[in-house]
# Entry
Amino acid sequence: MNYTLNQLRIFLKIVQTQSVTKAAEELHLSQPAVSIQLKNFQAQFEIPLAEVVGRKIHITDFGHEIAVSAESILEQVYAINYKTLAHKGQLTGRLKISVVSTGKYVMPYFLADFLKAHPGIELKMDVTNKNEVVKSLQDNEVNFALVSILPTSLVVERMDLLQNKLYLVGNAKSALKKTKNARELFKQLPLIFREKGSGTRQTMERFIESKELKVLRKMELTSNEAVKQSVLADLGYSIMPLIGIKNELQNNELKIIPVSGLPIKTTWSLIWLKGKQHSPASRSFLDFLKENRSRIVQEKFSWYEGY
# Structure
């Protein structure tokens, strides 16, 4: 056998995501490249590692056994790399962060300088909905989580990073009767919702309930990006975080619709389980944020104050 570490890494990611497409996205590779590596890896075994039924990939029992071995091998490789860097006096380790989907527009800016200063630290950032983020934190699978609504089911500590603002947004060319009266406005709007478990949806529903609004539920979508593309296509309107629509606003593709009670303001907070014993890498990251978060907000999010 002559498999490579890259093939092991790709196969393990396919097993973890149960999808070639998702594996490609998380590894920042093209789908054809991942498929080719999977095919080359499979060719070295006489027993199938995976089966494709319809359009879905299913990992065989043998494939799962190989994945366990692959993970063990990769862990040993990481350990060698860490020991080498540690011997040179560099900070090493893994930083695992779970981020709610809209947080992908926030978290990278608070990580960039830290990771550049410490190349020996490996980042694993999972982007998903709020329910999954809270679960990963509860199961102690991650060091930190980024949320805009604090979980009520866990006792956590937090560091506030950035204000979160949510506005009613529509296609820039859409025609609406001008009114700031929420009751009148929402009667004529086909609304696009995020899926259940989304923090954005939770915030949106709280606003609707507090105002006792009657709304037209147009559709439900499973990502902020999908909602944005649907609004761009003029399929409806949505209450969306400002952080994810900067370019579309500046390019006059989307517009903020003034309405009483908006924007809704929450806070992007980095949270961790109370009493958690931090690794040297995670402790160093917290120290970095305490010293640099104000600078990062000023440098990267100054446009935010214009809305």
User: Anything to note?
Assistant: Residues 5-87 form a domain with the Arc Repressor Mutant, subunit A fold (CATH 1.10.10.10).
